[in-house]
Each structure stands twice: as C-alpha cells, then as structure tokens.
Design goal:
The protein is of the alpha/beta class. The chain has helices at residues 12-24, 31-44, 55-65, 82-90, 134-143, 195-205, 226-236, 239-256, 283-292, 320-328, 340-354, and strands spanning 48-52, 73-77, 94-98, 119-125, 147-151, 159-160, 163-164, 171-175, 188-192, 209-211, 214-215, 269-270, 276-279, 329-332.
Length: 355
C-alpha cells in the first residue's frame, strides 16, 4: 500500500471551473481573482483581501505594508515554516526568536522579555491549524505599540472563541498551496481591516503601480491569476464540508492510536487540522518504519528556525520546547480522499511499532 502525506481535493466541479476560464481566453489577473477576493472577504468577515501568487509573497507584502526596514526587530516563534522568517529578511529586518509552548505556538509569556526599542512587530503562526492565544497576543501588541501580523498559512478554517483565524492582526496572510485544505495550487492572500494597507498591498503585488504606469511603491510581480483563482472559487463553496471531513478523520486517528501524544489545544478554539501531528520518543525510527511500509510522512519541523544555517547568525540559543518538539513530532497523512482502510493500515503500523 502506498499512502501519500497529502493530496489535493480536486473535483469535477473544480476542473469545470478552470476549463471555463481557459475558454474565456483571459488567464491573468482579472474578474475571477476579484471574485475570489470577495468570496474570501465574506468567509472571513473582513473588509479587505488582496490575492497574490503565494503565501510567502503575502508575508512579504504584509511586512512592507507596515513599514519593516533595516534595523527593525520582528518577534517570531522559534518553530515555524521557513517563510515566516524569510519575510523578515526580505525586508532587511532582524528576526527575534521566542520559544513555543505545548500548543507548538509562540509562548506569549516570553514575548515581552524580548521587546526592545527596535521591536516593531510580532508575527504569529497557528502551527498545523492549532490556535494560538490571541487574547494575549493582541494585549501585548496593544500595550507595546507593536503591529501584530498573523501568518495564517496553516489556519484557514481555525477559530479562536468564535472568531476566524487569519483576522486577528492588523495585517494577516494565508496560503493556498497544493497541500492546503483549500488550494489554488500556488497562491496566497493578504487580509486586513485597514483600507490603506489594502491599497498599498494591491500596488506592491503589481509592480508598485497605483494607476496605469504610475509606480508609487517598490513592487513585485506577485499577482494571482484568474486560472488558479477559479479553483479557489470552486473550493470555497465546499469549505465547511472539507473541514468536517478532516475533523472526522482526525477523531478516528485519536480514537484508535495508542501510546502517542498530541499538541495541547486551548479551550474555546477550533483546529482546522491542516496537519495531524503526533509525538513519538523514537520519532526517527518510527518515521523510517512508516516510510518503509509505504506511508508518507513529514517532519514539521526537524529543527527550530534559529538553528537553520541561514538564521544561525541571528541567534545561537537553545529553545528547549522547540528543540524537544523538533525531535519528536511527526505529521501523518491527512487529506479528503484518505480512506478508512488506509487509516486503519496507518494506525496498525503505528500501534504495532509503539506497543
């Protein structure tokens, strides 16, 4: 049996939506992108959305919109995807790392000790869709006059006390990469309640252009195109069903797996279950065993970000929780078409190994 770690949920309706755009002859950024932005604004109940061509591009745009520049410090969790840190470097800022807690998200009790006169922002990510302590994050950002930026690449569909994630910051981002539960193959979005940020983000994604051939900002070609936005528009219509199915598969895993541990989840939160993460003391041996049995996995993530060679010059600390997690965490297959038979096979192999 061969079981992939992730698989896009592409339906006949998705294929028809893309085919319709091909038939129009207009494939670049146009009305389909605008429709996707409107659909996402409605879903998130947020005023402004700006579609771009990746989640990484969205982060870069977000930091440009809040004016991050050389000498500015940006606080980020020590355990996150590399793009979170790259966005700081793209804007010539200095990443300041903070350890995570048992949710695998930034430990809010440690943030204020890292704030200096040069600190300008906090970037937060909800790892795997597991929700952070947004009450504390918003209080810290307000009390210290810091911009809260939410990297929501993994938390589309998550909620904090009834409020959808990807909305808690002054500027927020998300991703529609092929592995995500809503995909445009590649793509991302900037989300905000601030019209000025929205207008600047629109300009930056399109070569800094504010009107035809008038370029006010240093911009990029970060445009989303209609061809992929069509996928997003088809998939947002069934997002609740997608979330329901993933939750059911996670509950089946948890009801049947033995001798494994999971990240802590905060009361009053809803996990979108982008990742299904477990902890194993003998993680590397388990991972090798599962791979040999045809079960694809991911180590998310194999080292704290500050230990990555590209970031090592900024911080040489050992963050104990992030370090421990990086040595024990493994992400199991989770996708819409994962069958009960496949889950049973995965569960059997894990239970046999950990017995």
């Amino acid at each position: 049996m061969k079981i992939p770690w992730a698989k896009p949920n592409i339906t006949k309706e998705d294929e028809a939506a893309v085919r319709k755009i091909l038939e129009t002859g207009w494939l670049s950024m146009g009305q389909e992108v605008k429709k996707f932005e409107d659909n996402m604004a409605s879903y998130f109940d947020i005023n402004y959305t700006v579609a771009v061509n990746s989640g990484t591009a969205a982060l870069d745009v977000a930091l440009k919109c809040i004016g991050i520049k050389q000498g500015d410090e940006v606080i980020i969790p020590a355990l996150t995807y590399i793009a979170t840190g790259y966005a700081v470097l793209y804007n010539h800022g200095t990443p300041v790392f903070v350890d995570v807690d048992k949710t695998l998200n930034i430990d809010t009790s440690l943030i204020e000790d890292r704030i200096t006169d040069n600190t300008k922002a906090i970037i937060n990510i909800d790892l795997g869709g597991n929700v952070s302590n947004y009450s504390a994050l918003q209080r810290i950002s307000k009390d210290n006059d810091l911009a809260l930026v939410v990297d929501g690449a993994q938390s589309l569909g998550s909620e904090y006390h009834g409020v959808k994630c990807c909305t808690h910051g002054v500027v927020n981002t998300t991703s529609f990469h092929a592995a995500k539960l809503l995909t445009t193959v590649e793509g991302g979005m900037v989300l905000t309640q601030d019209n000025n940020i929205s207008q600047q983000a629109k300009a930056i994604r399109n070569q800094g252009e504010v009107s035809k051939f008038k370029h006010q900002f240093l911009g990029h070609n970060y445009r989303m195109i209609d061809l992929v936005a069509a996928l997003g528009n088809a998939q947002i219509e069934r997002i609740q069903e997608t979330l329901k199915v993933r939750k059911e598969k996670v509950e089946y895993y948890k009801n049947n797996l033995q001798n494994v541990r999971y990240p802590k989840e905060l009361p009053g939160t809803v996990n979108s279950n982008f990742l299904f993460l477990i902890f194993a003391d003998n993680r590397d041996k388990l991972n090798k065993h599962l791979n040999k049995k045809g079960i694809d996995t991911r180590i998310t993530y194999p080292m704290p970000m500050n230990e990555q060679p590209v970031f090592r010059k900024y911080n040489k600390e050992i963050f104990p929780i992030a370090k421990e997690v990086s040595q024990k965490v493994i992400s199991l297959p989770l996708y819409h078409s994962l069958t009960r038979k496949e889950q049973d096979y995965i569960i059997k192999e894990i239970n046999t190994f950990t017995r």
